[in-house]
Amino acid sequence: MSTVPSSGAGPAGAIPAVGLLRLWRGRRDPTHPSRGPGDPGAGAVRAALVPVALLTAIALIAPLLAPHGSLEVTSAGPFAAPGPHALLGTDEIGRDVLSRVLVGIRTSWLSALGVIALGAALGSLVGAIAGAAGGIVDTILMRLTDLFLSLPAPVLAIAVVASLGPSLMHTLIALSIVWWPWYARIVRGEVRALAARPHAEAARLAGVGRTRLVLKHLLPGAIAPVVVTMSLDVGNLILALAALSFIGLGAPAPAAELGAMSARGLDYLFGHPWVPIAPAVAVALLALAANLTGDLINRRIDERTNR
Known about the structure:
By secondary structure, this protein is an all-alpha fold. The protein is 67% helix and 0% strand. The chain has helices at 17-25, 43-60, 62-65, 97-133, 135-150, 153-164, 168-195, 198-205, 210-218, 223-246, 258-265, 274-305. Helix 6 crosses helix 7.
């Protein structure tokens, strides 16, 4: 997982929360002068987030955009080819493929964002406690983190879903269990590094309590690498969700999940290719949009911290 260099970003050693806010608003940090005409501009971050905002909006209003219900059998009949009556055709029992793909995009996108948010929150909490406490607490929490990191994440996720039973909620629980350790490692490393900086030592000498020191002076410096990692993880998580549902560990049929739709449509690949290909293309486009956005955010923050 990519992290952000922590040099040259002010006293905290990384872009603090206010720096990220300036990036979003398109304002320049007065401590970092412009590079001149070649500077891509702080608006690059906003441009990078446009696909995320667009996909999130589509996911939220997917039921309104869908021409039919995801389980509704249309009058076009089974295996109707793509055309005016059904833009992406119909499946083996006459359900509109476009409607099911839109609902599948909603499920995959919002589920990925939810798992990322939960994993980042849990991992950041564990990492912040370990980095700030040190000693035996740090050792215990990091050995626990290493235990999860030593297990192959896909195998662990499959084991959890298989033991709990196939369902979307169980899939999300399984992925949340295997996704937090990376964030714990990142935040712990950032907090430990920032704790040795002069501004943290000055805060301690001024009588700032440990909790306030972590929340106000150390944790904000870890925001940038966490944001970058989250943005880069969305695409991977979409693929992981699709893979689990493809092998039958997602929501049971007839739920509209992109991976499961592709798996069930493989039998019709040569006769009616739109049935398995449409959801597969949707997964690819979702992952591509997420990865491109993450790469742009990573590049922009790297430029910011290296000034």
